[in-house]
Amino acid sequence: MERYKEKIGCLVHIPNVGRGKLKYLGPVEGKPGIYAGVDLLANIGKNNGSFGERQYFESEYPHSGLFVQLEKLIPLIESTYDSKKDPLAIESSPQNEKENVQNKERNLWSSETTIQKTSTGNNQQSPTLVNNLLTSSDGKSPKHDDFKTTPSSGKHESKSSLGYSDVDGDVCMSALSSKDAVPYSEYYSSKSYRDQQLRIEKHEKEIMQYKKLLNEQRVLLEELQPAIEEYEKNMLLVEKENQELRYQLIKQQEQQEKQKQFFEGEHEQLLTVVEELHEQMKSNERYFKNSSGTCLPKD
């Protein structure tokens, strides 16, 4: 854990969650093992840097804090740290570049061409052209001073500066050996091949990093799979209970509707009976009045 404490304050990318700043490394009360406290860049965490009754770090937002087991976060920290040390990104020093250029000049472009021309007729003097083509690494053509003109005698036997002789006025050219003469196309093709090889190595490293991240994602998914299955099982149970409750509610509503209709019918009947009783009472009162009036004694 001590070697990762220097990473506190660095950004870490957590797959399927987002980026955050590492702010805490250590134990968490009530949880086994070592945990890393990450302050996410958005309000998508689970806490504010506290767990239980203890505050472990200050979060930027009310719910941007997240605690992750350190062993799960170590590969992400190491991959982020290693990506900053890509050996392909280191440029060569000027001294090494200069030595490489000199070696290329000595090994690839050391060639000489000698052309000597003599007269075929009278014993007239003709210039002998000796051209030493030493091509530089930047591909520039030789200067005018590189050409030297030397007078030749009237004799047919003469020697050039490189030791090749002319016979009967023929023009002789020094053959370039395959060891010393390398065309421009081969030079550029070798350079392109080296660039392509470096690019392939870089892509292979990127692929290895992606595979590593993919394996971590697979491990995380395998760890979450039982919980997901449990959630799905609970969800099915809740849906089943919800359907049963809905069915019971419909039954109760139907029963209440029937009872309401029954009570309304009974109420109608009671009202009818009450009205009949009122009518009976009124008729009885009239009868008693009439009967009492006829039965009174006369004075």
UniProtKB/TrEMBL annotation:
Presence of the UniProt keyword Coiled coil in the record:
yes
Compositional bias of type Polar residues: which residue ranges?
108-139
Sorted keywords for this record are:
Coiled coil
**Taxonomically, which superkingdom?**
Eukaryota
Comp. bias regions, Basic and acidic residues: 96-107, 140-159
Look up keyword Cell membrane and say if it applies.
Answer: no
Coiled-coil annotated residue ranges, if any = 193-260
Region (Disordered) location: 85-164
Pinpoint the CAP-Gly domain residues.
Answer: 26-69
Designated name of the protein: CAP-Gly domain-containing protein
From which organism does this entry originate?
Answer: Zygotorulaspora mrakii
